[in-house]
TrEMBL record, chain A:
PANTHER family noted in UniProt: BETA-HEXOSAMINIDASE, BETA-HEXOSAMINIDASE A
Class of this enzyme: hydrolase
Gene3D superfamilies for this protein: Chitobiase/beta-hexosaminidase domain 2-like, Glycosidases
Superkingdom field: Eukaryota
Active site: E330
EC number, UniProt record: 3.2.1.52
Pfam family, one: Glyco_hydro_20
Name this polypeptide is given: Beta-hexosaminidase
Catalytically driven reaction(s): a ganglioside GM2 (d18:1(4E)) + H2O = a ganglioside GM3 (d18:1(4E)) + N-acetyl-beta-D-galactosamine; N-acetyl-beta-D-galactosaminyl-(1->4)-beta-D-3-sulfogalactosyl-(1->4)-beta-D-glucosyl-(1<->1')-ceramide + H2O = a beta-D-3-sulfogalactosyl-(1->4)-beta-D-glucosyl-(1<->1')-ceramide + N-acetyl-beta-D-galactosamine; Hydrolysis of terminal non-reducing N-acetyl-D-hexosamine residues in N-acetyl-beta-D-hexosaminides; a ganglioside GM2 + H2O = a ganglioside GM3 + N-acetyl-beta-D-galactosamine
This protein's UniProt keywords: Glycoprotein, Glycosidase, Hydrolase, Signal
TrEMBL record, chain B:
Stated name of the protein: Beta-hexosaminidase
One annotated GO molecular function: beta-N-acetylhexosaminidase activity
Known catalytic reactions: a ganglioside GM2 + H2O = a ganglioside GM3 + N-acetyl-beta-D-galactosamine; a ganglioside GM2 (d18:1(4E)) + H2O = a ganglioside GM3 (d18:1(4E)) + N-acetyl-beta-D-galactosamine; beta-D-GalNAc-(1->4)-alpha-L-IdoA-(1->3)-beta-D-GalNAc-4-sulfate-(1->4)-alpha-L-IdoA-(1->3)-D-GalNAc-4-sulfate + H2O = alpha-L-IdoA-(1->3)-beta-D-GalNAc-4-sulfate-(1->4)-alpha-L-IdoA-(1->3)-D-GalNAc-4-sulfate + N-acetyl-D-galactosamine; N-acetyl-beta-D-6-sulfogalactosaminyl-(1->4)-alpha-L-iduronyl-(1->3)-N-acetyl-D-6-sulfogalactosamine + H2O = alpha-L-iduronyl-(1->3)-N-acetyl-D-6-sulfogalactosamine + N-acetyl-D-6-sulfogalactosamine
Catalytic activity, EC: 3.2.1.52
One Gene Ontology cellular component: membrane
Signal peptide stretch: 1-16
Length: 536, 548
């Protein structure tokens, strides 16, 4: 039997774990939200979107795609919810879940966008929006298409399905409200590792749907690692064709999500090395014989820089983003040390014995190539920790679990921009409500100056794929990643766990209705319509 | 019988414990490992229109048409991937083409039960290279035999094939249970069915349905409808009697028993609103009722009457001869605080709270007796010294770090049958590979006599429902529960997780191909350089129809 984890003395008429799932609470919590007492019926099946775009044109396709999509979402929502099969004949169940008062109807959503449209989300994207709901209808105002997207998601979440006695959705209601909203951090990312386990396209798209609902704006795609090189290469059976990658990038683009690819060097290149002889360093044993193992990239082989140029140019053509992630984590020096060609080369170049300098040689060459190709870049923190000389515009991603606040302080003190991921490795699972720990981490609690704080551009939550594939991927990700989403979007003082508990549960149910496998991360509970695999 | 271990491609597998063995050598292996399995190198290819026939002397068991249909579909699914357009060069030639599976059944049992006969023998390649001969004492052995046979299929030269094989197989323990909890989270009927299907594939034979608990009461009684009307999360979060009967029939067709648990007198908060004001004990603080409620109040006859009414219905709905009466974690604090209970105890010369617990438990046992049900209780009923009759089965759930051994020893010493659950609470998750811990448990690893070991009926794995619902329960259970399945089915000597790991990897891949979302947690690819991917990565749109 089970240890009492949730002993509650008093029983209420609906189970103690039950939270009414549709109060129209927003996740992540908006910066300002004034909910009024009036309630309107939203004619959700027939919403009329009225885009008022001053400089409309083909480059504004993100907005037009969004009005079509959100029209679909509202319709799908009402279609998905079906009465239980025995419901009609069972008088016991005929109990209204909500009252059914009549309210004035609104049916228009006006999207006001005075700025010029951006086709592609970049690191410079702005996401501020205003949302108003009153008797005249819904109005979303933003300077950018990205703000319009975020406002539409807020509208979707603020809409409450009202269920009839038979369990079907009869109508949707929305409270009168004024929302002013913008993200606290610019870079709100999720790292998807498709190298350790291949993740099918359907899963990647489900993930991106969830990212959009949580207002994440960066999909950091860890494509290549020691285990596989799934990026259009013949050596492994499960690869993504270029067309597939482009399809994903497009899917993310219209949802206001940047796709930042990572090509991790000089370590973690095991799989790429299999297709590229000479890329990896040959390791030797104490007797000077090759061990059969391959180490990090060989910085002394000039051909490898041509290879990097080819790959990065390829990336630039496929991924539109202005950033690429160059990795740089966990570079072991042992193999370099074992290789005589490398020691000879280091001797010739007056860096004998200084392997950090050798790493720096590789990194600075790759950084130069990257700049020439037209990317800015992000690196894992070791590049900074190891004292490799890097350009001031380099973004340093803090990921090591030891004192990440200290590292953040050091990185920003040195004048670099910082991205935080240490506290948000979702692959490390444990029993219970671990989302609370992710939620409680405050990235700016490092006693920095205002200027140093400003250098923290955001964070990323990571789901390394040692133990996840399509069978369990999305349920492991959401809603635990939602905790990070709110930390990165909402104001610093949004820290009330009790308030967050009720809302994150509602968010889970909302994601379920959207077809996303968000798990019950907060203990016993129920959604009005439970998620079924049979729904596929 | 002595356990004979034999693998396909004998030569390649001389170093079976070698962790670097590539996984494709394990195609055609079986999980859980049969008691006796002799595999030869010659093989037969399968005919795509393979027929299932019953021998003329076999009785017509009513589940058999459904069983044949299911396994015919599963076997035929192997032909989807085989490419006919490829110009094939055959590296070896088959000994024959199997077009018939001939099934002989000795006796129909109709209902799976504690005494169900699950044994079978399977012959491939001889005496006939055109037909497989499967002989079972009862229909349950047919299910297990066809499952084993289906797992043995592997492609040779792109053609679904089976090596010549002789198998004699039976379960080590008669009770191989899995607990689901529909109180903490409601599980849709389709999810419960998928779970039963996966259990059947893994040769589990008991679904322990922990149907209600303090959080919610989803059992929709017709005689006491207020219980779920007021105790379920919402009036929609219920199982109707028709739905339950449908689930039980679904399970029967797969050789799985459904044993329901109505846990009393603790864990009953959700009963309170529907069961009336006298049902739960009012707790007192400073001599006054403080508004909170404790366990069921054992001093009122009405409460026993209510239970009798409920169990009379439950007895009709659940056909299994066993009922789980719960009895765990009864907190005595509330009873101690309540003056009416103190008075009652004084009046009846009861000096300990275990004695008043016994009053309640005795009431439940009497009802079970009258309904001719056998029953299982959680270990506290035994440990608290509640007097229980010898036929009571005790389920040991505490002490997962090892003290369960003492409890198992004590329970069996006193002559009770025991079910072990402690080491197999799969809801407790941790980072990384944990199936080996479940696999390495030996249920008879406690101080006792042979007679005591004979009293170990089996074991039960559990997925308590605090953090699982339809979104994540299946991948959280599978393939970790497969480790427990082998422990409970296979011979005691099949106990090396190093030898089992690639066979289990292969089994996970097969479950994925059949549409079950079994998660990848068998190896750490950072440690295993030859980490194996499955030939078909899981796709939620693929083959899910095999589950329902």
């Amino acid at each position: 039997m089970q240890i009492f984890a949730f002993l509650i003395g008093v029983t209420v008429s609906q189970g103690p774990g039950y939270n009414p799932p549709y109060t129209g609470s927003i996740w992540p919590k908006p910066q300002f939200q004034d909910v009024r007492s009036e309630v309107f019926t939203l004619d959700a099946g027939n919403i009329k979107f009225i885009p008022q775009i001053i400089h409309d044109g083909p480059e504004c396709d993100v907005v037009h795609n969004a009005t079509w999509r959100y029209g679909q979402y509202f319709k799908d929502l009402s279609n998905r919810i079906k009465p239980h099969e025995e419901f009609e004949t069972d008088p016991r169940r005929k109990r209204s879940l909500n009252n059914n008062d009549a309210h004035p109807t609104v049916s228009t959503v006006t999207l006001i966008m005075p700025g010029t449209c951006e086709r592609i989300p970049l690191s410079t994207m702005e996401e501020h929006y205003d949302l108003h709901v009153d008797g005249a209808g819904v109005t979303i105002y933003s300077d950018t298409v990205w703000g319009i997207l975020r406002g539409l998601q807020t509208l979707f979440q603020a809409t409450v399905p009202i269920m009839t006695k038979s369990g079907a959705v009869e109508k949707f209601e929305i409270a009168g409200m004024a929302v002013q909203d913008y993200p606290r951090f610019h870079h709100r990312g999720f790292l998807m590792d498709t190298a350790r386990h291949f993740q099918p396209i359907s899963v990647i798209k489900e993930v991106i749907d969830g990212l959009e609902m949580n207002k994440f704006n960066v999909f950091h795609w860890h494509l290549v690692d020691d285990q596989s090189f799934p990026y259009d290469c013949n050596h492994f059976p499960h690869v993504y064709a270029i067309e597939t990658v482009k399809d994903i990038v497009e899917y993310a683009r219209v949802r206001g999500i940047r796709v930042v690819p990572e090509f991790d060097t000089p370590g973690h290149i095991g799989a790429a090395a299999k297709g590229q002889p000479g890329l990896a360093t040959v390791c030797y044993d104490d007797d000077g014989k090759p061990t059969g193992l391959l180490g990090p990239a060989d910085p002394t082989n000039e051909k490898n820089y041509d290879f990097m140029r080819t790959i990065l140019t390829d990336f630039k053509n496929v991924f539109h983003d202005d950033y690429v992630h160059l990795g740089g984590d966990e570079v072991g020096f042992g193999c370099w040390k074992s290789n005589k060609n490398i020691s000879d080369w280091m001797y010739q170049h007056n860096i004998a014995g200084d392997y950090a300098k050798l790493e720096e040689y590789w990194v600075s060459n790759v950084l130069n190539i990257t700049k020439q190709v037209g990317f800015n870049y992000i690196v894992w923190e070791e590049v900074f920790d190891n004292g490799v000389q890097i350009d001031p515009e380099t973004v340093v991603e803090v990921w090591l679990p030891y004192h990440p606040l200290n590292t953040t302080r050091d990185v920003t003190k040195a004048g670099f921009r910082a991205l935080i991921s240490s506290p948000w490795y979702l692959d490390y699972i444990s029993y219970g409500r671990d989302w609370v720990y992710y939620y409680n981490y405050e990235p700016l609690a490092f006693n920095g100056t205002k200027a140093e704080e400003d250098l923290v551009i955001g964070g990323e939550t990571c789901l390394w794929a040692e133990f996840v594939d399509a069978s369990n991927y999305v349920s492991r990700l959401f809603p635990r990643a939602s905790a990070v989403a709110e930390r990165l979007w909402s104001a610093r003082d949004v820290t009330d766990i009790k308030d967050a508990q009720a809302r994150i549960h509602q968010m889970k149910c909302r994601m379920n209705l959207k077809g996303i496998h968000a798990e019950p991360a907060d203990g016993p509970s129920a959604c009005p319509i439970e998620f079924e695999r049979a729904n596929y | 019988m002595r356990f004979l271990s034999a693998f396909l491609f004998g030569n390649a597998l001389t170093n079976a414990a070698d962790r670097f063995l590539p996984p494709w050598k394990f195609v055609g292996t079986v999980w859980p490992q049969p008691q006796s399995m002799v595999v030869k190198e010659d093989y037969q290819i399968l005919d795509a229109n393979i027929q299932f026939i019953l021998t003329p002397d076999s009785p017509q068991c009513d589940i058999i048409p459904d069983v044949f249909q299911r396994y015919q579909a599963l076997i035929r699914s192997h032909f989807k991937s085989a490419s006919s357009s490829k110009k094939l060069k055959f590296s070896s030639s088959p000994a024959g083409v199997i077009d018939t599976i001939e099934v002989k059944i000795v006796n129909c049992e109709n209902l799976p039960s504690q005494n169900m006969n699950e044994s079978y023998t399977l012959q491939v390649g001889s005496p006939s290279s055109e037909k497989v001969e499967l002989t079972a004492m009862a229909e349950w052995g047919v299910i297990h035999g066809l499952e084993t046979l289906t797992q043995m299929i592997h492609d040779i030269d792109y053609r679904p094939s089976i090596n010549s094989t002789m198998i004699t197989d039976w379960p080590r323990f008669p009770f191989r249970g899995f607990l689901i909890d529909t109180s903490r989270h409601y599980l849709p009927v389709s999810v419960i069915k998928a779970q039963i299907t996966a259990m059947s594939w893994n040769k589990y034979n008991v679904l322990h349905w922990h149907i209600v608990d303090l959080e919610s009461f989803p059992y929709q009684s017709q005689v006491l409808p207020e219980l779920s009307f007021l105790g379920a999360y919402t009036p929609l979060h219920v199982y109707t009697i028709n739905e339950i009967k449908d689930i039980i029939e679904f399970a029967r067709l797969r050789g799985v028993r459904v044993v329901p648990e109505f846990d009393t007198p603790g864990h009953t908060d959700s009963w309170g609103p529907g069961a009336g004001p006298k049902f739960l004990t009012p707790c007192y603080t400073n001599g006054k009722p403080d508004g909170t409620r404790g366990p069921i109040n054992p001093i009122y006859q009405e409460n026993y009457n209510l239970m009798r009414k409920l169990f009379t219905e439950v007895n009709q709905v659940f056909s299994d001869s066993y009922l789980h009466l719960g009895g765990d974690e009864v907190p005595f604090g509330c009873w101690k605080s309540n003056p009416d209970i103190t008075d009652y105890m004084t009046k009846h010369n009861l000096t300990t709270y275990a004695q008043i617990e016994q009053v309640w438990v005795q009431g439940m046992v009497d009802i079970a007796h009258d309904l001719k049900k056998n029953y299982v209780v959680w270990e506290e009923v035994f440990v608290n010294g509640v007097k229980i009759s010898n036929e009571t089965v005790v389920e040991v759930w505490k002490g997962k770090t090892g003290t369960w051994k003492d409890t198992m020893s004590a329970v069996t010493k006193s002559g009770h049958k025991a079910i072990l659950a402690s080491p197999w609470y799969l809801n407790y998750i941790s980072y990384g590979v944990d199936w080996e811990g479940y696999y390495n448990i030996e249920p008879t690893d406690f101080n006792g006599t042979n007679a005591q070991y004979e009293l170990v009926m089996g074991g039960s794995a559990a997925m308590w429902g605090e953090y699982v619902d339809g979104t994540n329960i299946l991948p959280r259970i599978w393939p970790r529960a497969s480790a427990v399945a082998e422990r409970l089915w296979s011979d005691k000597s099949v106990n090396s997780s190093a030898a089992a790991r690639w066979r289990l990897n292969e089994w996970r891949c097969k479950m994925l191909a059949r549409g079950l979302p079994a998660e990848p947690e068998l190896h750490n690819p950072n440690i295993d350089p030859n980490y194996g991917y499955c030939p078909t990565p899981f796709d939620p749109f693929n083959n899910a129809h095999f589950l329902f």
